[in-house]
Amino acid sequence: MSTTGEYRPHRVAVLALDGLLPFELGIPHRIFGRPKDARGRHLYEVVTCSVRPPGPVETDADFAVHVAHGPETLATADTVIVPASYERGPLYDEGRLTDDLAAALARIRPGTRLASICTGVYVLAAAGRLDGRPATTHWADAERFQRMFPKVRVDPDVLFIDDGDVLTSAGVAAGIDLCLHMVRRDFGTAVANDVARRTVVPPHRDGGQAQYIHRPVPDPQLATTTAARAWALARLDEPIQLRDLAEREAMSVRTFTRRFREEVGVSPGQWLTQQRVERARHLLETTDLSMDQVARESGFGTAQSMRQHLQAALGVTPTAYRRTFRTGGGAERHGGAGARH
Q: What does the radius of gyration of the chain's CA atoms come to, in whole angstroms?
């Protein structure tokens, strides 16, 4: 909401650099272009800009895109997103910003939320925005990125990292995960889930990049952990032990744990906590259940346990989360960078 009371959607500026991937350029427009409030008004305004005056920007495909906005757009943004670019130059070869890119980034207002998709993280790192902070990028580029920017705490195993005012994602499709996460952070799970359904993608993917790293193809006759996960999701409100999950697949606990991590990218315990946090978020947004009831329904047992887990996962208490994202409430907030979870 602007200081005059006039409605103003949250403005997302997407920085298009030469050599960009058209698919990644389209992700923010697709995800942020969907959400609307109860009155049918767009919650976000998405604008593409270049480091140069309006004109063509080369892609890694056999066509260019015409970008209608120059770098001055960055000064008006609430969030700036940098998709990947594959044009080699000082940025990727030396970890150094070009003069026009440095001048463009200097226009960004203090407090603006920054995000990168895949190797767009090089831009943030070269600008010094990631020094001493956690970040991720495509697993195949993580080692090189870490060598070039030793001050950055690189985690190659996750799909994205939310460090408050700076967010980074892994390769390509992880940009969808990141953008959905930002919608969820700004306006709640219900709004993000609606966007995911309309985009025909999962609202939340389990695990991290570890599951996508190339490995020998497993024997198709080997059992998977799919049935155990489905079984657990149907009874999150009940105590679930690791041995219970292993028995569903007729595996030893050791074999099940190894197979689960290979398939999902996290341990069974971490996955269960993630699912329970998501269940609690949904109940806090969509029901009037007491905190004790939400805790029991989501499998945390006690309100204190739920509070600890939500505080660790989201950075807010269950009470604060409900107050912010109760159905209909979150979609009435405008502008700014949204709640920091």
A: 21
Residue with the two structure tokens 């008004």: 41
Please, which residues have CB within 8 angstroms of residue 185's CB and are 6 or more apart in sequence?
A: 162, 338, 339, 340, 341
What DSSP string describes 206-263?
A: -S-GGGGS--PPPPTTS--SHHHHHHHHTTTTS---HHHHHHHTT--HHHHHHHHHHH
Per the structure block, which two tokens stand in for 118? 């895949």
Half-sphere exposure of 243 (CA within 13 A, CB side): 0
Whether the predicted pLDDT of 209 surpasses 60:
no
Contact 284, 329 (CB under 8 A): no
Instruction: Tell me the pLDDT of the chain averaged across its residues.
Output: 86
Q: How far is CA 31 from the centre of its chain?
A: 11
Read off the amino acid at residue 292. D
Q: What is the pTM of this model?
A: 0.71
Pairing of strands 134-135, 113-116: unpaired
Candidates 24, 25, 44; CA nearest to 33 is: 44
Element (H, E) at 291: helix 291-298
> How far, CA to CA in Å, does 47 sit from each of 74, 183, 339?
9, 16, 22
Per residue in 242-284, pLDDT (tens digit) is 999 999 999 999 999 988 887 777 889 999 998 999 899 889 9
Distance CA 128, CA 149 (A): 9
Task: From 25, 165, 8, 7, select the one nearest 82 (Cα to Cα).
Answer: 25
Contact residues for 36 (Cβ-Cβ < 8 A; gap 6+): 42, 43, 331
Whether the CB-CB separation of 158 and 142 falls below 8 Å is answered with: no
Nearest CA to 30 out of 48, 8, 46 is that of: 46
Q: pLDDT tier at 189 (50, 70, 90 boundaries)?
A: confident
Query: pLDDT tens for residues 132-152?
Result: 999 999 988 999 999 999 999
The predicted pLDDT at position 10 comes to 97
